[in-house]
């Protein structure tokens, strides 16, 4: 039994709705169900009962709620006091403009939550191109960075994947790929392909796939989402993206088509490998727990 399990349990007690609780606790509905099921197995009894699609606490659940609530409150008070005492130099974070606002829509509120929870860690963030983030990490200008990548990172940097999605290209209604579900890298030959950067490391699998297939698309830099969206719609470009069936559902003129043979596209958290920064590691864990994708 963990404090996190107790948090999930108490949140579900408030909502009595798996979907609502999963959303505000930053996890999937299935993960929440598994956590509650594990707790029930450990306690040898049901905590909730579902009758006619209405979730309610059992008597055992009511008793356990009364026991769990003060434990979590006391733990939170302990943590809050300890967090207040943390003091550090400013934590310098570089954020790739390729990730916001579409890929990390709640990044701003999560960073603000980090500031509130750890007031003794001044967080300084700046927006940079996808290629510039690792450069500034290597030269010591940044302590941590967020980039879009396909699993690789520059020499001397450590990487943690905050998300993983099927790699796709965004296409317009006038694209020859509009009716397709999958395309191969070879089919990008002759297309104008917008990418978040040209560095050899972050998108190495894409460069390799294009080379092996003999495809020669016209590669152009698409730094920001709205710039990429405009050029995809109005200039019939294709752009590197994550695959989501419901993505841009409000935009009827673009859709995502899976790009076969590539590893997942990710939001990667980078930091220097040889310079351990406890506050950067703390931020990485915080983002893993809080970010929505």
From TrEMBL:
Domain of life (superkingdom): Bacteria
Protein's recorded name: LysR family transcriptional regulator
CDD domains attached to this UniProt entry: PBP2_LTTR_substrate
Keyword Transcription regulation attributed: yes
One cellular-component annotation, GO: protein-DNA complex
Keyword Transcription: yes
Species annotation: Faecalibacterium prausnitzii
Family: Belongs to the LysR transcriptional regulatory family.
GO molecular function, one term: DNA-binding transcription factor activity
HTH lysR-type domain mapped to chain residues: 1-58
InterPro entries in UniProt: LysR_HTH_N, LysR_subst-bd, WH-like_DNA-bd_sf, WH_DNA-bd_sf
Keywords, comma-separated and alphabetical: DNA-binding, Transcription, Transcription regulation
Pfam families reported for this sequence: HTH_1 (PF00126), LysR_substrate (PF03466)
